[in-house]
Amino acid sequence: MKRFRNGLIVGKFSPLHRGHELIVNRALDECETLYIFSYYTPEFAGCEAHRREYWLKTLFPAAEIFVLDEDYVQKRFNVGLPRDGAGDLAERRFVGFLWTNLVNEPLDAVFTSEHYGAGYADEMSRYFAHYTDFPPVRHVLVDLDRREIPISATRIRADVHGLKEFLAPVVYASFVERICFLGGESSGKSTLTARLAREFGTEFVPEYGRTLSEEKNNVLEYEDLLRIAKTHIADEERLAQTADRYLFIDTTPLTTLYYSHHLFGKADPELFWLSHRRYDRTFLCAPDFPFVQDGWREDGGFRERQHEWYLETLAARAIPYTLLEGDPAARAATVAKLLGTVKVIV
Question: What is the pTM of this model?
Fold first, then answer.
């Protein structure tokens, strides 16, 4: 039997780091049910509510998680979030309000790594005074001096890449810049993404459509196109967790959408939706060097028609992009100049 029935942690988790994990895991060990509330306004860039919810639910599926933003509390409760600097009492009473309206059960313990936790527990006890023989809410203090995990979210926000060892891979992946490369066949995308990954000391995502096409001897079925897009996205998410600062991506679901229409004259509605996946930067490789037929590509001006489709589609969707021209070295230099200092030159 665990020490407490219901426990609570309240935090900004901006971003969620190993110190937070220490507190949450301690609470999970000691509570039958752990509730986690997260809110903050104004939110920090890169740590918006949807990201915090994803981090928390991925890392702590056993917890009951409520990530709140201004829109949520306005629509559900017709109130606003406490502003930064509202004061301890206002914050504590807002948490009491949330507990009463979201959980409405006796609370046994609050877990923090701060001195203010004792006063916080005292205030929360006030909400349960009507329960007969119910003890005051306990405060469990975890790693106050940051000896086990010597880090703070403030430090990480100042240097998220330099301090990524304090972030779980799923959290750090949210800060990796996704760099995608589009272009017709034989326009240097695969060579370029692999080269840039080496030069920047990071990962690249190969074109899964090419991989599957080779496995099936270049005979794809209509259903394969959605499979390609989903697998490619899964590869992106997996490799982002081991990337460093940047992830270079060879084609996107937008490419798969083009091939679906080209091969079958139609596209699965889900594929169309996936083709709107956002990337931090988009580079379009121009078809301005000799075409190389490797036995898998189409001839007869297909590359040029594909390039024109990209130009039209990127414009129609208002997606900003950089056109890459010249030989592979020139293209790599253009990308490196836009991204910044190369980590490792190979």
Answer: 0.91
